[in-house]
Each structure stands twice: as C-alpha cells, then as structure tokens.
TrEMBL record:
Cellular component terms (Gene Ontology): plasma membrane
Keyword Cell inner membrane: yes
Keywords: Amino-acid transport, Cell inner membrane, Cell membrane, Membrane, Transmembrane, Transmembrane helix, Transport
UniProt cross-references to Pfam families, sorted A to Z: AA_permease (PF00324)
Name the UniProt record assigns to this protein: Aromatic amino acid transporter
Membrane topology note: Multi-pass membrane protein
Subcellular location(s) per record: Cell inner membrane
Family designation: Belongs to the amino acid-polyamine-organocation (APC) superfamily. Amino acid transporter (AAT) (TC 2.A.3.1) family.
Amino acid sequence: MARKNLKRGLKNRHLQMMALGSAIGTGLFYGSASTIALTGPSVMLAYLVSGIVIYFIMRMLGEMSVHEPVAGSFSYYATKYWGGFPGFLAGWNYWYCYIMVSMAEITAVGIYVNYWWPDVPQWLSALICLIVITAINLVNVSAYGETEFWMALVKVVAILSMIFLGAYLIITNPLGYPANISNLWNYGGFMPNGVWGLAMACVVVMFSYGGIELLGITAGEAEEPDRSIPKAINQVIWRILIFYVGTMFVLMCLWPWNQVGMESSPFVQIFDNVGIPAAAHILNFVVLSAAVSVYNSAIYSNARMLYGLAEKGDAPKVFMMLSARGVPIVGTLVSSCITLIIVVMNYLFPSQIFMYLFAVVVISAVINWVCITLTHMKFRKYCEENGVHSKFKSILYPLTNYVSLAFLVGVIVMMTQIPDMRLAVIALPIWLCILYAGYRFKVSRHNKSNVE
C-alpha cells in the first residue's frame, strides 16, 4: 500500500517542539490585549478552563493516534468508527479550515513585513513566503520538521524571556513584591466584567489553541509514535499553564488590567520597561516567525489530510502520489496553489482581507474538535465491543467527552453574541449542507462505477 511509503522522518525533538509551537500563535502575541479587555485578570481563568478542555480533546485524539498512527488522523478514525459521511466531513472540513488558516497567516506575513518595509506590496511578501515554504515541504518530511523546530524555538524563547523579564519587574517594581499582586483585584475585582465577560473571553481564547490537533496528523510520519505522541500530548497542559496562564499572571501583576496593551502590544510593554529599545522590532520578528510557522504547518497538514482522504476514497487518487522522498507532492502543490488566491485578494483588498478570513476559520476549528470528541466515543464503544485495549487512554471517559461537547456548544452560542463572529455561525448549516452534497456526489459516482 502507498501508506507504507510515507517516511517516518519526524524525530521526537521535532514533535516536542511542534507541540510547543502549536500552542503559541499570533493570537497570544497580539490577541491577548483584546481578551484581557473582555475579562480583566480572570483572563488567566479563561486560558486555564479552555486549555483544560483542549487537553481533554488532545488526549482523545492521542488515544486513537497511538492505537493506529495514520496520515489521515481523525478523518480516518471518523470513517472507521462512525461512518462514511462523518469521515468525509471531518477530513474536508479540516482541509478547508487550514486552507483558510494558510490564507490568514500568509496575509499576516505581509502585514508584519510592512512594519519594516512599508513600500513592499503586501501581496509580494505573501507570494515569496508561499514559494519558499512550499519548496521546503517538497524536500522531505525531515526538512519540514527541522524548519518547524527552529521557528517554534523562536516563539518559545520569546515567551520564556517575557516571563523571566516580567518576573524580574515584579520583584524590582517600586511597589515591591508582593504589593503589586494587588493589581489582580484592585481595579474592579478579579472578574470585573462578570461571568459574561469570562464566557466571551473563552470564545476568543479557544482560537488561540487552534492547530494543536496537528500532533494527530503527524502520527503517520512520526518515529516511534507509541512513545513520542503520548509524551508530546501529556506536556500540553504544562505548556498551557506556563505559556498562557504564566504570561497572563505576569502581565496582570505588572499593570492594572485596563492599561495592558492600550498603547502597544503587552509584549512590547514588557521589553520597553526592561529598557530594551528595540522591543517593537523584536516582537515583529517573533510574530513574523509565528505566522510563517503556522503557514508551514498548514501546508504540511493539508497535504497529509488530502493523502488520507484519497486513501479511503474521499478524494481523487492522484493525492496519493508520493515523491521519491515520500512527500505527498500533489497534495502539497494543490494546497499551495489554492492558497495563491489570497495573493490576488491581498492585491485587491489589502486592508480588509484578514478579518474576512478570520470569520470563516473560527467555526471550522470548532467542527474539528466536535468531530474528534464524537469519534472518540465511537472508538471507545468499538474497543469495548471487540475487547480491544488501547495503549494511551483518554482521561475520565466518557465524562470528559460530554464536558468538552457542552463547552464547544457554549462556544458556538457565545459566538452569536460577537458581531465579527456571528456570520460564521449563520454560515455553519450552509457549510454542512455543502459537505453533505459533496459526500452524496461521491457515493453516487462510486455506485455508478460499481454498476458499470
């Protein structure tokens, strides 16, 4: 089978750093200020609660990935344990979601490059990034893993530096530790906008965690998946506590919550107050690396999802074509070429396009997580009926499945209360109908070919 030709070239260090990097995106660097405005110091609670739910979902995906490490990830599992349409929906929704993510991140690349060189057209920066990253992904899976390792390292070092420098400021602050801890409750309380503000913040926070399910996609090419995948997933909760909750704790202690990010990014504030004059330039380099990193991962994962869809007959067989080095070359090129659309859109609508894409992406991410949660329940039922013992069990099944589903439904409900996200919720049933029509077309063609 063609699946055997995929090269297991992702080393344990690649997976560990990819897992670290997937939990740190531009949402933390630039989006944290708006999240803080919604909920104040309780933003720490928003990141913690949402992060715990994401960890539950990752353990569900991890259990299935360790049991059967394949390229198609949860699309393959949905087909096997749930049915044809759920697998079709999960795979194509994931691919579509990350095509949109690719477009959003490559647009962000143009924005960040403009900070240094405002005369460079946004579309040109996007095109150069697309060509370079596509070329890297066509070399082999190790080239992708190595590139992602170093770009993720930039993000990790930036976050850790901010936390250490922030801790230094807390201790040496004129107020003196622990007096500055009172910033956590002095300005309207720990939860100044109440439970409603916290719930609204959870919606925004959840999308900071988008992409973390990439670990499941890597299972088909990971060396020693039985060992490396559980190790990477088990560390997710600690990353969330350190990188998100830890960062927010430092920010909330250093400044009154209603002053964080008012004049610049919270990260720029940290570096400025330590006396680093190039703070804004450092941050711009970090967020540029973060955007390129996410685009790199999106191209990688989209090619593998198309490969997995083709393997089970949900996409044309041409997507199973591999290069001599085991790269799904057609899937990589097609995903990259479709992303070219955004180069044209950046030329036509350079200022508005990012928010257009964001509205489309957010609901797709929720569908991905719902599919993983429901598929895992079907998987466990299959295991119980057939006496199968998985090696890496999820936590507190099925309680965590129900908790996760309830939380995700709550996210969709809260999205209707945010004007910029309301359109995505309205479009959800339309998108599901389009996917179902595509599935019925695929089934009818399959039946017709069998008759002939």
